[in-house]
Design goal:
Blueprint lengths: L8 H10 L15 E4 L19 H6 L24 E4 L2 E2 L3 E3 L2 E11 L5 E3 L2 E3 L2 E7 L2 E2 L14 E5 L8 E6 L2 E3 L9 H7 L2 E5 L7 E3 L2 E5 L3 E3 L5 E3 L2 E5 L4 E3 L5 E3 L2 E5 L12 E5 L9 E2 L2 E3 L2 E3 L13 E5 L4 E2 L2 E3 L2 E3 L4 E6 L1 E2 L2 E3 L2 E3 L9 E5 L9 E3 L2 E2 L1 E3 L7 E3 L2 E2 L2 H19 L16
Parallel strand pairs: 1-2, 2-5, 3-6, 4-7, 5-8, 6-9, 7-10, 8-11, 9-12, 10-13, 11-14, 12-15, 13-16, 14-17, 15-18, 16-19, 17-20, 18-21, 19-22, 20-24, 21-25, 22-26, 23-27, 24-28, 25-29, 26-30, 27-31, 28-32, 29-33, 30-34, 32-35, 34-37, 35-38, 36-39
Length: about 450
């Protein structure tokens, strides 16, 4: 094999930014080799360089060209050219399925779209491992040249079969969808045909979903491991829950969640939430230290969308909930539950806006509720909503909570959208769609 593609110091800086706890490269190893996969002009006879690229990524994985280590640090295929710290750039075209059973990396391996390219895969799974980054892909089984023999119900699954050391699996800047056009879907299609988006699995920690556009799906993003980060994503056109937070220490911030479809009248018995919190595999139980900050939740971006249904905003009904921070969210929904925390303890609910445009019997509130009489020591301040209910916590510190009006709603929505666009871009880099179209 020819000398490996050029190494760049930028990869080292990237590693320190994304994984600040990383302790440095293996002795004697230089970071940042670059490899290339081109499913149109590449070949298995290539060496992975820009002039002699490999073919589709699925073949590169199957041939063992990426070094795989186990959780004890043993390298299973030491002759593989792609090492921890390297990047494989994917050119436009169909790359098959991205499936890695296991792989623990001392430095991240990056699988990314080459600049200006839109590589396509059918679905993604990294079952067990640490420090992988997947960036800039189009992910949908509808893109396959031929129907895929197998498609999991979640199109991206990270860390589902890992152990305690499974960590730092990152999916970012990707466009994930069942089909691009759902205008012909029936109500039954929204329930049974729609795949779900991202599943950050149960048996690891600190996985990341960042700046993905998840479209035409059942469930949007489900955080099932402690300390996961979900930021800057768009969940658009969904039929169940937008984001689910189910373990301690998770952060959900600056996401846009919009457009709910189908409800009980259509045969769907899911109670739909923009963001829902509960203890995974238990339903009810103590969940601690979740941050929900700077999100925009919209029941219906446009009034003429088919299969209308109501959407609860931020629904945390099955605690106790300890040490939550719910701040600076805009909840524009057509349900009473704007922001509801049940059996909340030492939680902060601050600077949120809950509103419904037009005439609606269901006007969203901010509420401290209870099922187990355990609400206590909460702070609720500087919120705007149609009503407030804190009876579950007689000792609550409630200050400066005011009745919302349309002027406040529009001002705060515009400000938060501008902040989110400044951080993550007005148009998604792969979906080429806006995060939100403001109401007239």
């Amino acid at each position: 094999m020819v000398l490996r593609a050029r190494r760049v110091f930028v990869a080292f800086l990237f590693t320190l930014i994304i994984f600040p706890s990383w302790e440095g490269p293996s002795k004697g190893r230089v970071l940042g080799a670059e490899f290339f996969c081109d499913p149109v002009r590449g070949s298995s006879a290539g060496d992975g360089s820009s002039t002699r690229p490999w073919g589709m990524l699925e073949e590169v994985i199957a041939k063992g060209l990426i070094e795989i280590g186990d959780r004890e640090g043993r390298v299973l295929n030491p002759q593989a050219p792609v090492k921890p710290g390297d990047t494989i750039y994917l050119l436009s075209g169909w790359h098959g399925v991205l499936r890695i059973a296991r792989g623990y990396n001392p430095q991240p391996i990056v699988l990314a779209a080459a600049p200006g390219h839109t590589p396509q895969v059918g679905w993604v799974e990294i079952a067990d491992g640490a420090r992988w980054v997947i960036r800039g892909l189009m992910i949908s089984p509808s893109l396959a040249p031929q129907p895929l023999a197998q498609v999991p119900k979640n199109l991206v699954v990270l860390g589902e079969r890992g152990g305690p050391d499974c960590s730092d699996l990152v999916i970012e800047d990707c466009f994930i969808f069942t089909e691009l056009d759902s205008s012909h879907w029936t109500a039954a299609d929204w329930i049974t045909k729609a795949y779900s988006g991202i599943w950050l699995g149960r048996h690891g920690r600190a996985h990341v979903a960042r700046n993905n556009f998840v479209l035409n799906i059942r469930f949007g993003i489900q955080l099932c491991a402690p300390d996961c980060l979900c930021e800057g994503n768009v969940v658009a056109n969904f039929s169940a829950d937008g984001i689910r937070a189910t373990r301690d220490g998770q952060i959900i911030r600056h996401n846009v969640i919009k457009n709910i479809f189908v409800g009980s009248r259509d045969g769907d018995d899911n109670h739909d939430d923009g963001i829902q919190v509960f203890l995974f595999n238990q339903g009810r139980g103590t969940v601690r230290n979740i941050t929900i900050e700077g999100n925009i939740i919209v029941a219906r971006e446009k009034p003429d969308l088919p299969f209308p249904n109501s959407l609860q905003g931020i629904g945390c009904f099955d605690g106790p909930l300890v040490g939550f921070s719910v701040r600076n969210n805009i909840v524009w929904v057509n349900h009473y539950h704007g922001i509801s925390l049940y059996d909340a303890q030492e939680c902060l609910v601050e600077n949120n806006v809950c509103f419904v445009l037009g005439r609606s019997r269901a006007q969203p509130w901010v509420m401290l509720g209870q099922k187990q009489n355990q609400a206590r020591a909460n702070i609720v301040r500087n919120n705007w909503a149609h009503s407030f209910n804190f009876r579950a916590d007689p000792g609550v510190q409630a200050t400066n909570n005011q009745i919302v009006d349309e002027a406040i709603f529009r001002k705060r929505l515009g400000d938060l959208l501008a902040e989110t666009e400044n951080r993550f871009g007005k148009i998604h880099p792969v979906a080429k769609r806006p995060r939100l179209e403001l109401p007239d």
